[in-house]
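yo

u said u wanted the structure for the complex thing, so here. seqs first:
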Amino acid sequence: MQQNSSSSEPIVSLHNVQKSFGALRVLDGVSFAVARGEVLALIGRSGSGKSTALRCIDRFEKVDGGEIVVCGHRVDRPDVNLRALRQDVGIVFQSYNLFPHLTIEQNITLAPCAVKGMATSQAKDLARKVLVQVGLEEKLHAYPEQLSGGQQQRAAIARSLAMQPKVMLFDEVTSALDPELTGEVLKVIEQLAADGMTMVMVTHEMGFAKGIADRIVFMHRGKVHETGPASILTSPTTPELTQFVGTGNLKS
Amino acid sequence: MSLQLDFPAVLERWPSFLAGAVLTLELAFFATVLGALLGTLAAVGRGTHNSLIAGACKVYVETIRNTPLLVQIFLVYFGLASLGLKYSAFTVAVAALTINVGAYTAEIMRAGFEAIPRGQIEAAEGLALSRFQIYWHIILLPAVEKVYPALTSQFVLLMLASSVCSQISAEELTAVANYIQSDTYRAFETYIIVAVLYVILSLVMRAGFWGLGLLLFPRRRRLGTPL
Ligand SMILES: Nc1ncnc2c1ncn2[C@@H]1O[C@H](COP(=O)(O)OP(=O)(O)OP(=O)(O)O)[C@@H](O)[C@H]1O
Ligand SMILES: [Mg+2]
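structre next:
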């Protein structure tokens, strides 16, 4: 049986993870770990494998080799309990992916009711609570299309939070947004970090990463090329990271 | 050249016309409900990874779409008879129409399923919803919504096509008309009345689907988006 990790063990750990799409080797021995309450930022050029690494954690991609342990689940094994894994992991995508035919409240209550068997009234209380957390309580009964991009993304974060995950994964959650809407989403994530949520986020908001991340993983050609505390962004050691931060936080 | 129409002679048979029209509507209703179910299942089946199920669904859909409805009706009618099974003409007609419209529904629903963005399904998977729950809560309604006009047209077409059930003497509208015109020798008048009745039945069905749409798609009702 897969048991939840004791508090000393990392929430997420990747060890020598390999992943290819056909002949293209996208992850070439990736290793990193995220401790409880830690915020890890995955950065790197476009195509360096950041999204793939993130998706492997929630088993949206199956790895070819190596080991991934998430909240005690052996994600690399074929017999991993997907539903249990995904109750422990929340994932938010660049394109929000709210369910268009459901109100924001219904978007949020669906999984707690359907997956955890929560009573409707309790789920509605929970929906209100997580919407307050992201500053959207007045949008409870709106449909997704009535919300701005930033609001939709915050609602998507709230929907994930309602499942009370042990770790949250974010894949470039602000890169579809106008600059003025980016801030409101980043603020929500900042608050989550302050509340002690364990997070792995792919981002190209370098200023944000510097401010919030406990650790930076810089990926280059499918490998962890440089890793360390946020300070590596200001004093990188490898020429690749130097160049990457030097070119500014260009859209990757 | 003179055209002499004598509607009263035909119209005094109105109870028969009415009964035929009601039966046609009943045929259409049952075949629509059952066909929608069958077609949706076949569409889901075609999308599964099980190649046996997917193959069977494909054979079903393609066979039906490439054979005439009348032949399908005869196949069900004589097929059941040769197995020694006795069913009323109405039951046979519903069965044949269901099988027929199910195949077209499957094709339409498949298009609807394919129109659901991959990201929607991934988001649902990420929330730990099961395969069935994803179909039920996330895919089905938006898919139906996307193809609703095509679906409802198909069901209205089915109602019109049910006129060939007169061939197995189901007492629907066209069968009634055939009977009345041979009785009154007023064929033209009879079929004019029947045509008008079919138009009315079509309008009734379209109104029904419009109302059903309001029920099924509350978002459109709220936001005032037309279908
Ligand atoms: N499903 C897939 N099938 C084939 N190739 C893929 C697939 N997903 C990703 N790739 C390829 O793998 C490589 C890494 O992709 P990935 O999305 O992980 O990069 P990324 O670092 O997230 O880039 P970006 O910053 O542009 O999002 C790319 O070359 C991409 O084209
Ligand atoms: Mg990416």
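The interface with chain B takes residues 58, 60, 82-84, 86-87, 89-91, 93, 95, 97-101, 110-111, 114-115, 143, 145-146, 156, 159-160, 163 of chain A (CB under 8 Å). The CA atoms of residues 111 and 163 of chain A lie 7 Å apart.
cya
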